Backbone:
């Protein structure tokens, strides 16, 4: 069990609604003391850049085991999580076989234990058998086996009728349905967000309305089932458009039990990366919010059609990315989830339109958010809350631990230097999925240590 | 011939093709032209006007070669040109083959359907294999946009894009531009289509020909109109608003579904093929309705300027997007396009063969 003394750090505790200079002491894996500094003692602490926060929780991780261990194993995925500052990850059910019955959940749980990682793996069950969108999976048995929710992610819950049943069944267990909102009829063959970039590059468009219409469907079904099952809950994952977020905003105002997350890449990257630009979303608009021209001299600095950038939902234009940021700031988006989707080279060194969807994200999420903090688009506290209390709220009691810098509890925290940079490289990444569009890029927020459940999960060795 | 790197007009110099002469020695080997900056031809959007002008001038020289009793020069003797097509094609594939053979290249033809691609070999592996087999120039067509860019990353020679997905068909756009310059240009002037109304009519959305032509025709100064049903124009209004190739490039592009407005006083009408699968995709009610509303008929063409020119990249659905009498009529440049296609591709193979060490 870990011992740790960190004096003169910047503590962030979203659960307590507090951040500021302080000290922490960990003894035998227990967070023995949290001291908030004031006055002279506190002077200059922020400048050092050392931040201590509760361990991050990822609501949306693809671990690929069982079935596609070339892309990721549970062990390599948990190592990547620890490197990224995550102490808990929620694994999606789209493994092979899908996690549609308790045996698969038991297998994954056993593999996580065998990995020796301190990081907690929580598992989603599939909504439908084989994620086929037709037959309801054994949601009750899956709930008994410890899953934290149900999702057919990789695909939406195919029909409104199936979603209705799923919300009712999951509601009985007090668990959320986590939907990937997409109207597949509108996205057949889609390669990129419909818009100027897709038009110029000749890529098949994924219309923004395909997300909003799916969200509208889901919200309508949710509102309808609440009368029969008031415990029904819906979580919408990786929202990427202003229209969808606006619907969630209105639904929350009406009191519907809906939550949602956004991904780091939809916050900070834009579709113009497909054309070869490499600037953050906030750099792609001018002061008036008007888009800047990616075809202007010097902006397109990389070869176009990098298959690593293929992701579902696709990278959007800057106005949608900024709408995601705004939703995070005003609380419409409850959490940031990575949608960590490791793939092998075989799946990504191919024609753009044939590439597997998804990018590796656990280890770069913090750096991306801190880039947003550095330019004033996010407060540090908001970013940390989106990785801690936000996802904890979605998971409810199934998280199984308190969140926050709580004295006397097993230490579950991340220590990072927000001013120290690291260059994303294959050698630095713990994931097997080297499909990160940020390879070669310098990010801030170097994680120094991740302590999960009182045990050291990751330590920076320089 | 050489082109001033600063973008000035071409001048004639030693060791390069002489557009006016018939000296076969001039084509003994490709020249290294300082004005050509690309190792590959993946798209037209990266070409400066000076580079486009180099292509047009070199095409003039190749036209002269084609007029000889034996239309063959030794420029690419000993050079392996491999033609790799992942899609069926007649005119583009044969045009490249004829062009390469006219330059005395050794030509290898690979149809993906009868190669290891059919066994699941990846594009990257296929390209590496082709290079290991000695190919120095790779002409490829692929149904996926951007595929030639991937090939170029892994091929040590020169990649020529023979059409990729919906994205680009650079040789078609350059042969179309050359064909128009023959009729409408007066010489070497840069924006020879200034003041000319050029209409691209049909399935703009799925057309790589349209995308490449949008760039070259607007670069040549055309008053460009894109016309078709709204379902086949999605995304182009936003592109036109932004400026075809970056903001404030001075191009003028109008996107409309009003065929009468588009054709009124047009100088050039380029019809595009309509594919039956667009109906299955819900983008068109029927070919009959398309033909009735957008088909290029003699009556519609009467709205255009007297003597307006008609183009089509082929293959044509006569009676659908273009009436047979219009396609075969006196204003049609369609056979000129095919013939010029060989000359343009000869010019591009010739220029690229001399482009050792240049960038993308």
Residues:
């Amino acid at each position: 069990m870990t011992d740790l003394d960190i004096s003169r750090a910047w503590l962030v505790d979203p659960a307590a609604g507090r951040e500021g200079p302080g000290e922490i002491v960990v003894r035998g894996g227990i967070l023995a003391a949290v001291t908030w500094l004031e006055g002279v003692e506190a002077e200059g602490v922020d400048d050092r850049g050392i931040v201590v926060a509760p361990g991050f929780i990822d609501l949306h991780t693809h671990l690929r085991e069982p079935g596609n261990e070339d892309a990721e194993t549970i062990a390599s995925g948990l190592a990547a999580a620890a490197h990224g500052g995550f102490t808990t990850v929620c694994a999606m059910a789209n493994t092979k076989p899908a996690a549609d019955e308790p045996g698969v959940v038991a297998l994954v749980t056993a593999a996580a234990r065998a990995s020796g990682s301190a990081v907690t793996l929580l598992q989603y069950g599939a909504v439908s058998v084989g994620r086929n969108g037709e037959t309801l999976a054994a949601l009750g048995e899956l709930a008994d086996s410890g899953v934290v929710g149900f999702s057919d992610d990789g695909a939406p819950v195919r029909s409104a009728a199936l979603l209705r049943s799923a919300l009712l069944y999951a509601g009985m267990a007090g668990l959320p349905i986590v939907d990937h909102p997409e109207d597949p009829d509108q996205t057949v063959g889609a390669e990129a967000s419909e818009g100027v970039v897709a038009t110029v590059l000749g890529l098949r468009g994924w219309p923004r309305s395909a997300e909003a219409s799916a969200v509208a469907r889901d919200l309508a079904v949710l509102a309808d089932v609440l009368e029969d099952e008031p415990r029904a809950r819906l979580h919408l994952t990786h929202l990427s458009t202003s229209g969808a977020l606006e619907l969630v905003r209105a639904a929350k105002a009406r009191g519907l039990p809906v939550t949602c997350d956004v991904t780091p890449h939809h916050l900070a990257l834009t579709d113009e990366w497909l054309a070869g630009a490499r600037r953050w979303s906030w750099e792609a608009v001018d002061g008036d919010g008007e888009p800047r021209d990616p075809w202007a001299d010097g902006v397109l600095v990389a070869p176009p059609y990098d298959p690593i950038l293929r992701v579902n939902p696709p990278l959007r234009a800057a106005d949608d990315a900024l709408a995601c940021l705004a939703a995070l700031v005003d609380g419409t988006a409850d959490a940031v989830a990575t949608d960590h989707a490791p793939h092998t080279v075989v799946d990504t060194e191919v024609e753009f339109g044939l590439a597997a969807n998804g990018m590796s994200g656990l280890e770069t999420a913090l750096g991306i958010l801190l880039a947003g903090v550095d330019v004033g688009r996010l407060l540090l506290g908001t970013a940390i809350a989106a990785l801690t209390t936000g996802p904890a709220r979605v998971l409810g009691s199934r998280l199984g631990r308190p969140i926050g810098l709580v004295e006397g509890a097993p230490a579950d925290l991340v220590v990072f230097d927000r001013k120290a940079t690291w260059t994303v490289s294959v050698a630095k990444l713990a994931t097997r999925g080297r499909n990160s569009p940020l390879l070669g890029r310098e990010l801030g927020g170097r994680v120094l240590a991740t302590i999960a459940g009182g045990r050291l999960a990751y330590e920076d060795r320089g | 011939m050489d082109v001033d790197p600063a973008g000035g007009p071409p001048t004639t110099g030693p060791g390069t093709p002489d557009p006016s002469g018939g000296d076969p020695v001039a084509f003994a080997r490709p020249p290294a032209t300082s004005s050509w900056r690309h190792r590959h031809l993946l798209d037209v959007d990266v070409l400066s006007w000076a580079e486009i002008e180099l292509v047009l001038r070199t095409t003039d020289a190749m036209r002269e070669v084609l007029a000889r009793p034996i239309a063959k020069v030794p420029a690419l003797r000993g050079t392996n040109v491999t033609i790799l097509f992942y899609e069926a094609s007649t005119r583009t594939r044969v045009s490249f083959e004829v062009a390469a053979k006219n330059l005395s290249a050794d030509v290898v033809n690979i149809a993906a359907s009868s190669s290891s691609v059919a066994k699941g070999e990846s594009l990257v592996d296929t390209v590496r294999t082709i290079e290991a087999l000695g190919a120095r120039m790779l002409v490829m067509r692929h149904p996926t946009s951007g595929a030639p860019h991937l090939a170029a990353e892994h091929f040590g020679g020169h990649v020529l894009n023979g059409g990729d997905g919906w994205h680009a068909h650079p040789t078609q756009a350059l042969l179309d531009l050359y064909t128009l310059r023959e009729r409408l240009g007066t010489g070497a002037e840069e924006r020879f289509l200034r003041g000319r109304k050029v209409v691209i009519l049909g399935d703009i959305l799925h057309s790589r020909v349209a995308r490449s032509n949008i760039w070259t025709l607007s670069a040549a100064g055309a008053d460009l109109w894109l016309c078709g049903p709204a379902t086949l124009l999605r995304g182009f209004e936003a592109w036109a608003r932004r400026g075809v190739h970056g903001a404030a490039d001075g191009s003028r592009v109008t996107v409309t579904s009003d065929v009468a407005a588009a054709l009124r006083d047009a100088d050039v009408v380029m019809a595009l093929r309509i594919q039956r699968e667009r109906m299955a995709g819900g983008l068109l009610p029927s070919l009959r309705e398309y033909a009735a509303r957008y088909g290029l008929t003699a009556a519609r063409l009467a709205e255009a300027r007297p003597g307006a020119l008609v183009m089509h990249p082929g293959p044509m659905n006569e009676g659908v997007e273009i009436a047979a009498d219009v396609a075969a009529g006196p204003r049609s440049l369609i056979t000129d396009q095919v013939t010029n296609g060989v000359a343009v591709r000869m010019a591009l193979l010739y220029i690229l063969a001399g482009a050792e060490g240049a960038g993308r």
In short: The first strand of chain A starts at residue 4 and ends at 13.
